[in-house]
Give the backbone structure.
Amino acid sequence: MGIITVQGLTLGYGEKPIIENMDVSIPKGKITVIIGANGCGKSTLLKSIARIIKPDRGEIFIDGMNIKSVSSTEIAKKMAVLPQTPKAPLGLKVHELVAYGRFPHKKGFGTLNKEDFKIIDNSLRVSGMLEYRNRNLEDLSGGQRQRAWIAMSLCQDTEILVLDEPTTYLDLSHQLDVLALLSKLNHEQGRTIVMVLHELNNASRFADFMIGMKQGKIIAQGSPAQVITQENMKAIYGIDANIIIEPKTMKPMYLSYENIG
């Protein structure tokens, strides 16, 4: 059993299911990337794991715990979730945002203690945001803001980080910065990273395990070499992709593609 296990998952926003009878296991201590065209159910799967959406049927287990049987606070101690477009009030400073990550560990309206402040500072340091701690969030670049949100997730001190399109709206340099940070957290701290990405070459480069979806179903799963193939790209995206093995990373990447038909 993986650190996150989905069994017989069925859910949707209306009468027609978006995901139907899905089984999937996400490995512990790895970077898992979910890919697929818009509307295929990637974000819906993440929201069900995060208990933002209640399944119609099926079970979801986080490190062996059925999420139906534990409190939101207990889940928040195991798993930090960063949505696609997180929002914060104007005037919020970076260190104030990061401090929110400690709330699942406090009882009632408990104040932050010395250990909390130590964890806040360490989260800022690891994410490269220590020098920006007193800056207003809205004054930062897109990449810096994303790092601040990741610092807040780190401050939650969880084993699992779940991120929905963490590189959306970022330029190429900032995309690489954010993904390199997540890779560092995985390799140096052993955190399990689960994220949705649209850019396939980045997905292949940084993933240990990939899940390819189409219309609420898993088309392919496994290593990047097992998922990023011409056959799977046809099935998942409807494209004929020219795929090579990148010599530096030894991961598959596409050079060009054409729509089929």
User: Anything to note?
Assistant: The first strand starts at residue 4 and ends at 11. Residues 31 and 208 are 5 Å apart (CA to CA). The longest helix spans residues 172-189. The chain has nine helices and twelve strands.
